[in-house]
TrEMBL record:
Name of the protein described by the UniProt record: DUF2461 domain-containing protein
One Pfam match: DUF2461
Coiled-coil segments on the chain, per record: none
InterPro entries, per database record: CHP02453, UCP028451
Highest taxon, organism lineage: Bacteria
Length: 225
């Protein structure tokens, strides 16, 4: 059965885990933790259900609580958050949705976190040619009210082959094209949180529609699919 709220108990177990991030505690409390993890997964399924009413979603993925510590200085074995992602369907729909639930650090993220080399070059060439549609969408007051400013890592100088004096070089230098919306614990635990999540995801669609069009066409606007 789907669940449309995040319980205080689900947050509390994460707080306790953060203070007892070791295998002994986790094994002792695993059944309780798994119960709350299952409740959160049900919440993510409810989010997917709502998303599917206005977008084509291929799958929902809930990330495992276990950390891969092989190449990390931090050897704590468990994450201290719940997280899930929602993939859009097919090569013609680009972008994805992410949700991160953690006491004091909950957020939604969306956009293009790690575009491959070809996609990144195609986005940059589009912005080099004409960034007006892109800027119109991300500067829309209703859009900005929900998602704020474009975020993401950028290169320090102009990418190879691009003019450092281009008027849109600030956008072209980006390596990521993402938006993040933060939530307080009170907002996450509110009965209205799932509505806020869905409203936020709905609001990103103009951006996704533009980026999908860019990434599935060449610079002449001809389909590459």
């Amino acid at each position: 059965m789907n669940n449309s709220i995040i319980s205080k108990e689900a947050f509390d177990i994460l707080k306790v885990l953060a203070k007892n991030n070791n295998k002994e505690w986790f094994e002792k409390n695993k059944s309780v933790f798994k119960k709350h993890e299952s409740e959160v997964k049900s919440f993510f399924e409810s989010v997917k259900e709502r998303l599917s009413q206005h977008d084509d979603i291929e799958k929902m993925k809930m990330f495992r609580i276990y950390r891969d510590v092989r190449f990390s200085k931090d050897k704590t074995p468990y994450k201290t958050h719940f997280a899930g992602s929602f993939s859009r369907l097919g090569a013609h729909l680009r972008g994805g949705y992410y949700i991160h639930l953690q006491p004091g650090n909950s957020l939604l993220a969306t956009g293009f976190w790690a575009p491959n080399k070809e996609d990144l070059f195609r986005i940059r060439k589009e912005l080099e040619m004409d960034a007006s549609d892109f800027r119109k969408i991300i500067s829309d007051p209703d859009f900005k009210k929900i998602w704020g400013e474009l975020q993401g890592d950028a290169v320090k100088t102009a990418p190879k082959g691009f003019d450092k004096d281009h008027p849109d070089i600030g956008l072209i230098k980006n390596k990521q094209y993402v938006f993040v919306r933060n939530f307080t614990d009170q907002e996450v635990l509110s009965p209205n949180f799932i509505e806020d999540v869905d409203k936020s995801y709905r609001a990103i669609r103009p951006y996704f529609d533009l980026m999908s069009d860019i990434l599935t066409t060449n610079l002449n606007g001809e389909s590459m699919l």
